[in-house]
Design a protein that fits this description.
326 residues, Metallo-beta-lactamase, Chain A, seven-stranded mixed beta sheet
Length: 326
């Protein structure tokens, strides 16, 4: 069998193009329908035991790749890592993926997205829920992993109304203690003060109704909070279990996998205690890899579910195969 070389392939393409140009056109090209100009709804369903899970995308933040985004790595190394992952090196698309868990008795939303109040390319949660056939009024529990704006602002509409009016809202006790403390706010770096204000705006009028939980609490039957401190003082992941099946919701244990899964020692600018966040990340990744535990991640490419595999000193994200069968 002869080798198919690049030169031969290009020559064949040119020959074919020349032959095609010599044939008169019989029918004119038709393009009656305009291009859609936007993406289809970001929805993906899968099961954990008897629970039905729906990953829903709230959109994406197109963040410039610049010095300081990874605080302990050279910009050239960050761009090289993105290039190795076949990603643009000027802007990084950071998705926002919420998860809805239908246990058969409860409909649980884990984190609420941006509410369209941060990135102009985000704020699609309610719209995509409608496409998935899920009424916001059907959500009876909202679990918050931590208090960064892209996880809490969607609790309210742009008009300030509660987006999930029938839901009990549950939050980590340590997050509440930190972000609601006036002393912490006064001592915070200037760049963090805006988030303190967003927390108060989001929770202020419902503070007395918000339920607090600690690590290891079963917040909903089948869903347990797991401490993952460092990214924020009370940052939580969630273990979902039904029968013999389990899933770990990573929340913000790692940001984009091309950077922070392959390089678990890299520190994102978003981490409040970067050293603790790295320790947490390695511990959780080691557990997920050893137990072959399926994960769901907030900032991984949609739908953000798959597995973590050990790879030398780092790890790899292995996406779960897309399936039409639940």
């Amino acid at each position: 069998m002869s080798d198919l070389t690049r030169r031969a392939l290009l020559a064949g393409t040119v020959t074919a193009a020349a032959a095609a140009s010599s044939v008169p056109s019989i029918l004119p090209a038709r393009a009656a329908a305009p291009a859609a100009g936007r993406q289809v709804p970001g929805i993906y369903r899968y099961k954990v035991g008897e629970f039905e899970l729906t990953a829903i995308n709230d959109g994406v933040n197109l963040r410039p790749v610049e010095k300081g985004f990874v605080v302990n790595a050279e910009l050239e190394d960050v761009k090289e890592a993105l290039e190795d992952a076949y990603l643009p090196t000027d802007k990084l698309g950071i998705p926002f993926n919420q998860l809805i868990v239908n246990t058969g008795r409860r409909v649980v939303l884990i984190d609420t997205g941006t509410g369209g109040q941060q990135a102009p390319t985000a704020g699609l949660l309610i719209e995509n829920m409608a496409a998935a056939g899920i009424d916001p009024k059907a959500i009876d529990t909202v679990l918050i992993s931590h208090f960064h704006g892209d996880h809490i602002l969607g609790l309210r509409t742009k008009e300030g109304e509660l987006a999930f009016p029938n839901a009990e809202v549950q939050v980590p006790e340590a997050e509440w203690k930190y972000w609601m403390d006036d002393g912490e706010m006064s001592r915070a770096p200037e760049g963090r003060k805006g988030n303190f204000a967003a927390v108060r705006k989001t929770f202020g009028s419902i503070a007395k109704d918000v339920k607090h939980f600690d690590a290891d609490a079963e917040v909903v039957p089948g869903i347990t909070a797991v401490a993952a401190y460092g990214h924020t003082p009370g940052h939580m992941t969630f273990r979902i279990a039904s029968g013999d099946d389990q899933l770990l919701v990573l929340s913000d244990t790692a940001n984009h996998p091309a950077l922070f899964v392959r390089n678990p020692g890299w520190h994102a600018v978003f981490d409040i205690d970067a050293a603790m966040a790295e320790e947490t990340r390695r511990k959780i990744f080691d557990m997920a890899a050893a137990d072959r535990l399926r994960i769901q991640a907030y900032h991984f490419p949609f739908p953000g579910t798959g597995f973590i595999a050990k790879d030398g000193d780092g790890y790899e994200f292995v996406p779960a195969p897309w399936s039409v069968v639940l």
